[in-house]
Design a protein that fits this description.
481 residues, alpha/beta, 4-stranded antiparallel beta sheet, 14% strand, binds pyridoxal-5'-phosphate
């Protein structure tokens, strides 16, 4: 493969920029190598930014990076990456409770509305098993992968992320959590403020605190983060990072409004700061979501966005394969941190991920998930309105797997969660989603981790009939089966 890549590299000058290379079949015949060798060599060149692959159309000589019109000017990153200015030392606090609540198995008989992943019946179990078996038989499957990840997988992620992102901008990671950890460590020194949406994913808050950073909340409304508050937070803190989920934000389910997207990038750029785009739910769009907005990374010319993607949410929490994508000097920093922390993502898992996303079953699986999540969302929302009319449900999301609800009467969300558990339903308290005082009690109800819509109806029935603090005072007692 390396030999073929070298030959192709040395012959690239024969093609004009944007010119089409011979088809894979022609290369197989000309060089007398296997189709796999050709596809790997081309992926290698794509990872080096020398060619661009367009599925169904062919492979083209890439525009040299220095002349790429959308590459923009990333020299501001030198300042951002060296600006220590962290101020006070923030005590490190390592608290996994917010993360464990969505990973722990609930007690027997309890319906799990607190899961963060698809129920096994919704996971592509057969396709994953087949992919793993095929991956294990690939030549070199147990060898060392390139530390940045397999070129073909980086190329696949680059195409998924879109815009002018190319394989060379992508680093394969062990899922989204590890990508976020690498990004935070790369961009925020200990003691530094990190702007986060409020509310946001507790795993992010836990990561920031565990690396000695100071998460600073920027409120989100029905249209995503509020730009004027973002600008004020940058000014007040001198932060160099903002972590954002523009699509189906966890927990609110909101989508960053079209008019705010460019503004967020502009504000961050003006502050000399990075935007970490956690695109965790792109493959969890519901059937009725309509066309999805592009990633922020696809619209970013100046290397502002560090994009995070993961395969786990649409597959299984154990398919821990994800990606970081960025441009400019920050890429070297991200790569160095990942190598120091964990060397690389196990090759068999990367090979299996590649097999899976290339299998005919993959698009079918995504369609099934989109239809099922929409159905479950409607079933749960309908059942809650019937059984718990006092719950406020301000936003019905078109993607993701959760409803973010407000108990109507003031009270602690911990009371609500405890009462729900006594009624036989595990739900997630809202408090860990806020890094400062919350504007009121909230609860997150997830509809992905149950076996089917029947369990959602039953969960709402238990919550409605159960010892609910706002319906009647909660008697102590064992969980209802
Ligand atoms: C918003 C968000 N980002 C990232 C993650 C990390 O997921 P994973 O590491 O499985 O990709 C999660 C998991 O719950 C999440 O909710």
């Amino acid at each position: 493969m390396a030999e073929l890549a070298e030959s192709l590299r040395s012959e690239l000058d024969r093609y004009s920029v944007g010119g089409k290379l011979p088809s894979s079949r022609a290369l197989v015949e000309h060089y007398r190598v296997s189709p796999v060798t050709v596809s790997r060599a081309l992926a290698q060149l794509a990872a080096e930014g020398l060619v661009v692959t367009r599925p169904g159309a062919g492979v083209y000589r890439a525009r040299p990076r220095t002349h790429a019109p959308a590459a923009g000017d990333t020299s501001w990153q030198e300042v951002a990456l060296s600006a220590e200015g962290a101020g006070d030392v923030v005590p490190r606090s390592v608290d996994a409770t917010g993360v464990l609540s969505s990973l722990a198995a609930p007690p027997p008989g309890v319906i799990e509305l607190n899961g963060g992943y698809l129920h096994p019946s919704l996971q592509p179990e057969r396709a994953m098993a087949a992919a793993l078996a095929r991956a294990g038989r690939r030549p070199g499957a147990w060898g060392r992968p390139p530390v940045e990840g397999l070129p073909e997988l980086r190329d696949w992620f680059a195409r998924e992320i879109g815009g002018t992102v190319v394989a060379a901008d992508v680093l394969v990671t062990a899922g989204g959590q590890s990508a976020l950890a690498t990004a935070l460590r790369a961009l925020a020194p200990p003691g530094a403020p990190v702007l986060v949406e409020s509310p946001t994913y507790p795993g992010l808050l836990a990561l920031a605190r565990a690396s000695g950073c100071r998460p600073v909340p920027v409120p989100v409304d029905g249209e995503g983060v509020r730009p004027e508050l973002l600008a004020a937070a940058f000014e007040a803190t001198g932060a160099r990072v903002f972590v954002c989920q523009p699509l189906f934000q966890n927990p609110t389910g909101t989508v960053l409004a079209p008019g705010r997207r460019a503004e967020v990038l502009r504000i961050a750029r003006a502050a000399g700061a990075f935007v970490v785009e956690d695109d965790y739910a792109r493959s969890l769009a519901h059937e009725d979501a309509g066309p999805l907005p592009a990633t922020l990374a696809a619209e970013d010319a100046d290397g502002v966005v560090v994009h995070v993607r993961s395969l786990t949410k649409a597959t299984s929490p154990s398919l821990r394969v994800g990606a970081l994508a960025a441009r400019g000097p920050v890429v070297d920093r991200l790569r160095a941190i990942q190598v120091v922390d964990s060397f690389f993502v196990p090759r068999p898992l990367q090979e299996a991920a590649l097999e899976l996303v290339g299998a005919p079953a993959w698009p079918r699986h995504l369609r099934t998930v989109a239809a099922e999540l929409r159905h479950r969302r409607d079933v749960l929302a309908g059942a809650l309105r019937r059984e718990l009319p006092m719950l406020e449900l301000p936003h019905l999301p078109c993607g993701g797997y959760q409803l973010w609800v407000r108990p109507a009467r003031a009270g602690d969300d911990a009371d609500f969660v405890a009462a729900a558990l006594r009624a036989g339903v595990a739900v997630t308290p809202g408090r860990p989603y806020f890094c400062a005082e919350p504007p009121g009690p909230h609860v997150r109800l997830s509809f992905a981790g149950v076996s089917g819509p029947g369990e959602l109806v039953e969960a709402a029935r238990r919550l409605g009939a159960g010892p609910f603090p706002e319906a009647n005072p909660a008697p102590d007692g064992p969980p209802t089966p």
